[in-house]
Amino acid sequence: MGVTVTVGEQDAYLARVGRAGMLMLPMITGIGEQVRAWADELAGEGITALAWDPFKGRSTDNTSRQELSGLLREMDDDTALAEQSALLDYLIDELGCSKVGVIGWCLGGRFAFLLGARDQRVANVVAFHPTVPSDRPPHHTYDAIAESAAITAPVLVSYPSADTAVPNADFETLQTVLQARTAGATFTQYFPGADHGFSDKSRHDKDVNADAFRLAWPQALAFMKATIA
């Protein structure tokens, strides 16, 4: 259903149907088969989906996760945010979307918070198992937990209790920050025993992860429709 489009100097995956839009920020898989399938599914639900390509043509379709992890450690926050902002512009100015939200997974969940804090055009923020540890690695220029205080849009965050990338204490801090906002509702999904990245099909050999995603995804779809329709 979707096609590759060029926006400025970057390529993105587009599944276009109407005036409600979601900017998709992938996990370590990049725009692999699974992310494209999610974009197509959103389009099937009446939502135009545009997926950012974090690794410039490289994904789990053609590159090992180890190599992609290496590329992630070289990623610059400001460059990535500029690319994402350009895609928001494209959704609104070129495609004519009247409302646009942002959804991200893992690394993309972190950027969803950062982008939502910076751009008031964002109508919702959906973050699946966002990689927002308080002990930030060198390539994390910005503290996504602290910056989420500036988000004015409704937020849905999905967290697995066995997340080894983000300790439970950090998630509790994130919750405190989000719930202290004076604008923007906070919706929380909490899955005991599920792992970081539980949305990834490669982790669905564990029932707890597959079950978590089976519950989480329909609620996220409903949230997106309610906030951008």
TrEMBL record:
It comes from the Bacteria. It holds the Pfam family DLH. It comes from Kribbella kalugense. InterPro entries: AB_hydrolase_fold, Dienelactn_hydro, Dienelactone_hydrolase-like. Residues 13-226 form the Dienelactone hydrolase domain. GO terms for molecular function: hydrolase activity. This is Carboxymethylenebutenolidase.
